[in-house]
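seq as requested:
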Amino acid sequence: MTIDEASKLLAKMYFGGGEKEKATQVHLFGIRYAKEIDGLPLKEVASRAGIPESYGTEIRKGINLAQHVTLKADRQ
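struct tokens:
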């Protein structure tokens, strides 16, 4: 996955969720796409998605959680 593809998916999830679910959507992005985005510059992915660079850390948390959780439903 390219940085541009990842940032578009992240923006869709971040801005498509409810106001109180934004951080959750960032974590879910990291969980759902962990294998595809691991190794990408996550702060840049966040920045290109139009959200603060600091969310790069939250994406990393999702990637780390991916090996421990299973998503109930795949809602994109």
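The CA atoms of residues 16 and 22 lie 9 Å apart.
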